[in-house]
Design brief:
The chain has 17 helices and 18 strands. It has 559 residues and is an alpha+beta fold. It folds into five domains: 84 residues, no CATH class; 89 residues; 96 residues, Topoisomerase I, Chain A, domain 3, CATH 3.90.15; 105 residues, 3-Layer(bba) Sandwich (FAD/NAD(P)-binding domain), CATH 3.50.50.60; 90 residues, D-Amino Acid Oxidase, subunit A, domain 2 (D-Amino Acid Oxidase, Chain A, domain 2), CATH 3.30.9.10.
């Protein structure tokens, strides 16, 4: 019996498939403005019809038999054109259906931001208030009386008179809902939808600490942070003290603003000859600059000193590069080894000119003064072409933005996950902590130095990600970042000396492979001025002359 029960759906599908195979796959009706068709893998017919304004709309007929599909398609077409003549949208959906679409879009934006925003409030309002009250009603049928009755019901549910700020959230959520309905073609822009009231009781400012209370708190926390019986207490107490003081000295909001700060969000800003420490924060209400009191520097120095993974990196460098860069153990190892060998690393001192005489490098100039040297190595990666122009050398290197995104903790994929690359689409993914890091090359990306994250590009990456890894549909994107590739026409680096300027050496244009190649490249570049040639590896084929001589060989394994 079990086998027979399982077999029936399969036989039914086979019969229907055989029946549809004998039917035409596409039929044009109403002077070609209505098309009934069936997809190759679908048992139901679809219809496509043109509206009065020229737009084409697709919709399923929900019918498997051709004659029934034609009748249903004609009904759909007639109703849509009739509604358009009345100034209504070509289709109708309930408030609950529109709310589901709207909330799904809002949650995608929330996941992309990776933090709590006002969008969370909109989702809560839509699901807790709009859907339970309006449910299966249509937006276009709502009257001002309906909306006023809803507001009275909402106030009873809240058991209090909402403040103006709360009402503003309700009006914004309502506007989002209406905008979604218009975008989905569920309601016409010409149909007026009643608006919610935004006038309410003005909120009261929370009481502030007095100066005397703050002084007492700071004095107490300084002593309290040095105590603690357990090891975890001795770690958490200094951190809590720094957290409280940063709130006091910057005025940032606790929670989303404070928890999202990175070293790269700190910088000195000079205006009218006065230097200020400013902090970029991005929280629930959006991004903004804060001017910090100078005492905040003491807090940052304490935080910096306790982070062992960046202890070798000066605080100023952390601000310039961001902790993601300077926390790299390998990079810090290179820097430490260089200093131990007598290398002097000058931070914040860019080269503004390269001096030469009779075809040979003689030195460089910086804002801090000139440095005489017979050898200059241009390893400025994305800025390599700009540096070479200072020496009168043209390098075919251009900076291109690359973006990556990281999900939250995601268990469905195995924990030990290697780097996986789809070279057809240049999509890739790998493990990043408990989450998944993924990205894709944007073929339309123009060259430039912009490093902001384009969240619209995330939609294209997600589409490719779900094609390769469907289980990622249940993951949420927590954050993203962007960096620069120094790219050459053949995606291979330019290594070695350049013609016409003795002493000028290039090590750039790695197209994303620079860090992994750096140990070997460093050895080869060091051998050029000391022995006259690279002995570790023959780098002659990677010279800049290959482009003039037509010897470039494109590297395709690039993402």
């Amino acid at each position: 019996m079990a086998k027979s029960a399982v077999a029936r759906p399969s036989r039914l599908r086979t019969l229907l498939t055989a029946q549809h195979a004998s039917q035409p796959q596409s039929i044009r009706l109403r002077d070609g403005e209505l098309v009934v068709y069936r997809r190759s893998r679908s048992l139901l017919f679809q219809c496509r019809y043109r509206l009065a304004d020229g737009r084409w709309v697709r919709q399923t007929t929900g019918r498997a038999a051709l004659e029934h599909a034609i009748a249903r398609a004609c009904d759909i077409y007639d109703e849509a054109r009739y509604r358009q003549r009345l100034g209504l949208a070509h289709r109708t959906d309930s408030v609950a259906q529109i709310a589901a679409i709207c909330c799904a879009a809002l949650r995608q934006q929330i996941d992309a931001k990776g933090k709590k925003t006002a969008l969370n409030d909109y989702v809560s309002i839509i699901e807790r208030y709009f859907v339970p009250y309006f449910g299966e009603r249509q937006l276009e049928t709502l009257t001002h009386t309906d909306v006023r009755e809803f507001e009275m019901w909402r106030d009873r549910q809240m058991t209090r008179k909402p403040k103006t700020s709360t009402l503003n959230n309700f009006t914004s959520a309502w506007s989002r809902l209406v905008a979604t309905a218009v975008e989905q073609g569920c309601i016409s822009e010409r149909v007026p939808v009643p608006k919610l009231t935004s006038r309410g009781q003005k909120g009261k400012t929370r009481p502030a600490f007095s100066k005397e209370e703050i002084d007492v708190l700071l004095a107490f926390m300084e002593q309290w942070s040095q105590q603690g019986r357990m090891a975890v207490e001795r770690e958490i107490r200094p951190l809590l003290r720094d957290y409280v003081e940063m709130l006091l000295y910057t005025g940032m909001r606790h929670g989303t603003e404070a928890m999202g700060i990175r070293w790269r969000d700190l910088e000195w800003h000079t205006k009218d000859g006065v230097r200020y420490l400013r902090v970029w924060v991005d929280g629930k209400t959006g991004g903004r600059w804060l001017i910090a009191k100078h005492k905040a520097v003491d807090v940052l120095l304490r935080l910096h000193a306790r982070q062992k993974d960046i202890g070798l990196c000066r605080l100023k460098t952390c601000w310039q590069l961001g902790c993601r860069t300077c926390c790299s153990g390998s990079a810090m190892g290179f820097a430490a080894a260089g200093r131990a060998a007598g290398v002097e690393i000058r931070e914040g001192s860019p080269v503004i000119a390269v001096d030469s005489e009779r075809g040979r490098v003689t030195g460089v100039r910086t804002p801090d003064g000139s440095i005489a040297t017979p050898v200059v190595v241009d390893a400025a990666v994305p800025s390599a072409a700009e540096v070479s122009r200072l020496a009168g050398v043209a390098l075919p290197i251009a900076p291109y933005r690359r973006q990556v995104f990281v999900t939250g903790a995601f268990a469905p994929l195995p924990a030990p996950l290697p780097m996986v690359i789809d070279f057809k689409t240049h999509f890739y993914f790998r493990r990043e902590g408990a989450g998944i890091l993924f990205g894709m090359t944007d073929a339309a990306e123009p060259p430039g130095f912009h490093t902001h994250v384009d969240w619209a590009f995330l939609e294209r990456v997600v589409e490719r990600a779900l094609h390769r890894i469907p289980v990622l549909a249940s993951a949420g994107v927590m954050r993203g970042w962007a960096g620069l590739y120094d790219t050459t026409p053949d995606n291979n680096p330019i290594l070695g000396t350049v013609p016409d300027l003795e002493g000028f050496i290039v090590a750039a244009g790695f197209s994303g492979h620079g860090f992994m190649l750096s140990p070997a490249v460093g050895a080869c570049i060091a051998e050029l001025p000391t022995t006259g040639a690279a002995a570790t590896v023959d780098i002659t084929p990677l010279g800049v002359e290959r482009f003039r001589a037509g010897r470039a060989r494109a590297e395709t394994a690039i993402i």
